[in-house]
Design brief:
By secondary structure, this protein is mainly β. It has one domain. A three-stranded antiparallel beta sheet has the order 2-1-5, with no helix packed on it. A two-stranded antiparallel ribbon has the order 3-4. β1 and β2 form a beta hairpin. 0% of the residues are buried.
Length: 114
């Protein structure tokens, strides 16, 4: 794989990267972890994968949906991004956005550095 003449990724290269990242080892437990009231919530495997080169860095995006629907309107939840089985580096590049409904929605964010 290589960059195109503009220093970016062409469609074919993006598709190849997405294909490579669409197959996950059976012992990979994911990097996005959701907890509701302290209990782990199962998420489906990543879907809607895409790849982009932004400011010289490869960005892979994906969506993880709930395995079983869960009413989160009155539940304390926590989302954590970490990876315990393979090596990935995570960074927050933009202010996180929170989406929800209702006046009672309250969110806090905490970033930990090692």
């Amino acid at each position: 794989m290589s960059l195109n003449e503009n220093g970016g990724l062409d469609k074919e290269t993006r598709q190849k990267l997405v294909q490579l990242r669409s197959t996950w080892p059976s012992d990979f437990d994911g990097s996005a972890h959701l907890f509701a009231e302290g209990e782990r919530v199962d998420l489906k495997w990543p879907s809607d994968l895409d790849a982009h080169l932004i400011d010289g860095k490869l960005q892979l995006t994906f969506r993880r949906t709930l395995e079983t629907p869960l009413d989160l309107s009155r539940v304390s939840t926590r989302v954590a991004f970490y990876e315990s089985t393979y090596f990935y580096a995570f960074s927050i590049t933009k202010e996180p956005q929170f989406f929800g409904r209702g006046r009672d929605l309250q969110c806090e964010r905490h970033a930990f550095q090692s």
